[in-house]
Design goal:
By secondary structure, the chain is α+β, with helices and mostly antiparallel strands. The strands form ten sheets. A seven-stranded mixed beta sheet has the order 4-12-13-21-18-17-16. The chain has a five-stranded mixed beta sheet with strand order 25-24-26-29-30, with helices on both faces. Strand 27 and strand 28 form a beta hairpin. The chain starts with a strand and ends in an 8-residue tail after the last helix. The structure holds zinc ion (ZN) (2 copies). One zinc ion binds next to strand 7. One zinc ion binds next to loops.
Length: about 500
């Protein structure tokens, strides 16, 4: 029996309890919308980035990667439009000095000191008038006393200073997206790698946005990680009878959707959303979001945009450098069009966790299990000794852990009874548990020799088989490479009960 998907509170609590995600600087009361990945969170996050890089960069002949710096030349942000347009309209309270997004201020409950009830204080639901006096909100929704300023544009980039002098000439920014580094390095990559269109540049790295209303756990944060691809195509080419940029845009939408399905997101929780014409960025020809049904509702998981030749042209204009490609066939220089599949790592992690979370009933007991794809699971194998008083069992278990840990993240745990240890591993998504018992090592006092096998238990089915220790690495590798459990388990005997 399986019960529904996780709500956000359940995920936040599991994340903290089991070392996935902690609030940043928690002992000082926390930092606004910044989160730290704990011992299991960092493994899960690294695994997401690793499989993304492997599938979209390493395995493709038409892709290369870069790792650019976070601090870039400030003119990059002039050319990209971020300095002038990456803004939200903000209002400030003249009393309590709190700041709100002008377009969000009526979307929160508001504090009201009601003149019809001798100034009693009420909290009134968002957008509703006071039930006593009929007034609507005009003052600060938080303190209920201060007037709000007129809206002002507030830039979302974090500003800082490069070098020892804090003056205007030294101003620079923490990058708000990784994409621009691919554009400004376009010619370096093209020339150094001798590439032919179409080709793409991939990058995973941190970006920063001073969001005024961040929130929903790791869904929207001020410091986050992106996995972005800029895929350059010749706009004069046609593929399957269509303009190359349109063909490749559709291909990337399909490939990205297939990627999320492959690593375990349920098809019912994914959908495509076409941007309307009035919400398209000024440079975009077409943008499609992959949306996921997060615990907060349908929201963007990643966006795939056709950015045309806007970025390369802008950087050519501001830098004075030519950013073109020589089309040998037509003997002409062209500015490539670019298709941009851009995903958030933190958001992907939240989606994978939410989708994997299950509460099941097993023989009258509740079990929480994260049915993460084995390649994403933070711990691949847990080695558990059945009796921790027996030195030979404990020694064998430690030796197996050390051997497997050359290949994967593997843990040893003997701090509870076996049933409890299994539940703990289920809760963090460990796909395989190995138990070392008396049968493995034998019993010298009784003159019994061990069979040299350990029990492998598979997380989802909870089935168990006995596998000879020397075959463990090959068996685990086969399973992690995608072999179905029944096919592998069928070759080995079940444990004696
Ligand atoms: Zn106020
Ligand atoms: Zn009132």
């Amino acid at each position: 029996m399986s019960m529904g998907a996780a709500n956000m509170d359940v995920l936040v609590s599991l994340s903290k309890r089991r070392g996935f995600v902690f609030q940043s600087s928690e002992i000082y009361g926390g930092t606004g919308s910044v989160w730290d990945y704990g011992p299991l969170g960092v493994e899960l996050k690294n695994n997401i980035k690793r499989v993304w890089w492997r599938d979209f960069v390493q395995q493709r002949a038409d892709m290369v990667g870069i790792d650019a710096s976070i601090l870039m030349h400030p003119t990059v942000w002039k050319a990209s439009g971020h300095l002038d347009h990456f803004t939200d309209p903000m209002v400030d309270c003249r009393e309590c000095k709190r700041r709100f997004r002008a377009d969000h201020v009526d979307a929160q409950p508001w504090t009201h000191y009601c003149p019809a009830t001798k100034g009693n204080k009420f909290t009134i639901p968002a957008g509703e008038p006071c039930g006593h006096c009929g007034q609507r909100r005009t003052l600060c929704p938080e303190c209920g006393k201060g007037e709000l300023t007129a809206p002002r544009q507030f830039n979302l980039m974090f500003k800082t200073f490069m070098g020892p002098v804090e003056d205007e000439a030294a101003v620079t920014y923490l990058r708000p997206e990784t994409a621009q580094a691919m554009f400004v390095n376009f010619d370096n990559v093209l020339q150094s790698m001798r590439l032919k269109l179409p080709f793409g540049i991939g990058q995973a790295g941190r970006s920063f946005r001073n969001e005024i209303t961040p929130g929903n756990f790791i869904f929207r944060t001020r410091e986050f990680e992106q996995m972005e691809i800029e895929f350059f195509v010749n706009p004069n080419d046609r593929v399957e009878g269509r303009p190359a940029d349109e063909y490749w845009h559709d291909r990337w939408i399909e490939d990205c959707m297939a990627w999320f399905l492959r690593y375990g997101l349920a098809a019912d929780n994914l959908r495509l959303r076409e941007h309307e014409h009035d919400e398209l960025a000024h440079y975009a020809k077409r943008t499609v979001d992959i949306e996921y049904k997060f615990p907060i509702g349908w929201s963007e998981l990643m966006g795939i945009a056709n950015r045309t030749d806007f970025d390369l042209k802008q950087h050519a204009k501001w830098s004075g450098k030519s950013l073109t490609y020589f089309d040998e066939e037509r003997k002409e220089h062209v500015v490539p069009f670019v298709v941009e599949p851009a995903a958030g790592v933190d958001r992907a992690l939240l989606a994978f966790m939410a989708d994997a979370y299950r509460e099941e009933e097993v023989r009258g007991e509740k079990r929480v299990v994260l049915k993460l794809h084995p390649e994403l699971a933070p711990i691949k194998v847990a080695v558990l000794p059945l009796l921790k008083k027996r030195d030979d069992i404990v020694r064998a278990a430690h030796a197996i852990r050390a051997d497997l840990a050359k290949h994967w993240r593997v843990v040893y745990d003997d701090t509870a009874a076996i049933g409890r240890l299994y539940r703990r591993q289920d809760e963090v998504g460990t796909p395989y548990c190995l138990t070392v018992d008396v049968q493995t090592v034998g019993d010298t006092e009784r003159g019994e020799r061990g069979d040299g096998r350990v029990t492998i238990r598979e997380r989802n089915s909870m089935e168990q088989v006995r596998v000879p220790v020397p075959e463990l690495i090959a068996v685990i590798r086969e399973l992690l490479d995608g072999a179905p459990w029944p096919q592998v388990a069928g070759r080995y005997p079940s444990p004696r009960s």
